[in-house]
């Protein structure tokens, strides 16, 4: 006779049992656990500051979409949505010029959900509004776990059509369409083969696409110098040139180890005249994204090469996290 499995029950918790105070507990927890919000939004999100002053008020959280570099703001509450927080959300949006606006609450009144839908339908495609319902659960006597659910989100296709009609935009170039088609294919492969790399779901129409590195102001990128010259890179992109230089030199000082682990030479580029720096691995010039028949081959090169590149750079990041000779600003989070 087959053994009957013994299963526990999933139980819901009052959010204030897990996060007693919105500002002191939930906002600070979310600042340190942005990946939970990233997963539900389908983007690579980095939250950088809590209680950011906006005029005479304080925005709960601000950060950026690592894929585009655009600003993301988050307004939280631990009660059913109300008009006051909707007003605050719009006030903060006016003071920060975000691309993504997120409202988190345990429950959304229907009129507030409808307000977010209306904003998504009537604003241009450069800004998106999300409603995220927050809750917490546990299995048996386990530790509480967050459970987030989208209750309002933009209809990107409808917004794009509306924007194109309203602005009479010219059709995209064949090259940008080729990039979008390729990144769509590559993202699908990544989510199937390397799902931990990114939460992003929206493909780029540019010649590059970023991935999180795990440190503020540093990220990975897939890119093309031309449609037939692929590369992967570790990009040091702080607005502060000194921070970039210091972080870059920490990696450059271990160049031999990095190249030995990677298995081939790397191109260390200080990018003279710019604030940024990068470390590049170049691909073969026989690869082009203009031919859809080559997409599997090009995507395969990107995934295989990034796998090796991540292994050596992530191991190096961990090994040098507390390196005493490194500049403190440069190694924060490295």
From TrEMBL:
Q: Which GO terms describe its molecular function?
A: nucleic acid binding
Organism superkingdom:
Bacteria
Domain DUF4268, first and last residues per copy: 179-314
**Alphabetical list of InterPro entries matching this protein:** DUF4268 (IPR025364), tRNA_endonuc-like_dom_sf (IPR011856)
Which Pfam families does the entry link to?
DUF4268 (PF14088)
Q: Which Gene3D superfamilies match?
A: 3.40.1350.10
Q: What is this protein called?
A: DUF4268 domain-containing protein
């Amino acid at each position: 006779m087959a053994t009957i499995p013994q299963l526990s029950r999933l139980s819901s918790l009052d959010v204030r049992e897990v996060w007693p105070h919105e500002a002191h507990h939930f906002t600070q927890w979310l600042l340190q656990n942005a990946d939970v919000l990233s997963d539900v939004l389908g983007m690579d999100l980095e939250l950088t500051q809590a209680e950011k002053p906006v005029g005479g008020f304080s925005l709960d959280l601000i950060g950026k979409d690592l894929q585009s570099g655009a600003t993301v703001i988050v307004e939280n509450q631990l009660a059913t949505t109300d008009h006051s927080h909707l007003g605050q959300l719009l006030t903060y949006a006016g003071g920060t010029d975000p691309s993504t606006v997120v409202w988190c609450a345990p429950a959304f009144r229907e009129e507030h959900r409808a307000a977010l839908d209306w904003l998504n339908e009537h604003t241009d495609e450069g800004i998106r509004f999300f409603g995220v319902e927050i809750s917490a659960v546990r299995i048996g006597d386990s530790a509480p776990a967050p459970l987030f659910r989208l209750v309002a989100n933009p209809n990107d296709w409808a917004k794009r059509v509306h924007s194109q009609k309203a602005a009479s935009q010219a059709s995209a170039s064949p090259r940008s369409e080729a990039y979008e088609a390729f990144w769509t294919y590559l993202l699908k492969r990544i989510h199937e083969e390397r799902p931990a790399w990114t939460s992003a779901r929206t493909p780029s129409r540019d010649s590059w696409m970023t991935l999180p590195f795990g440190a503020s102001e540093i990220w990975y990128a897939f890119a093309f110098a031309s449609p037939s010259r692929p590369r992967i890179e570790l990009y040091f992109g702080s607005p502060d040139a000194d921070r970039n230089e210091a972080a870059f030199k920490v990696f450059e000082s271990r160049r031999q180890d990095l190249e030995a682990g990677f298995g081939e030479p790397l191109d260390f580029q200080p990018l003279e005249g710019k604030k940024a720096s990068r470390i590049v691995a170049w691909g073969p010039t026989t690869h082009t994204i203009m031919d859809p028949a080559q997409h599997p081959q090009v995507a395969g090169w990107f995934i295989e090469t990034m796998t090796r590149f991540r292994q050596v750079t992530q191991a190096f990041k961990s090994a040098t996290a507390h390196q005493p000779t490194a500049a403190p600003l440069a190694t924060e989070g490295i």
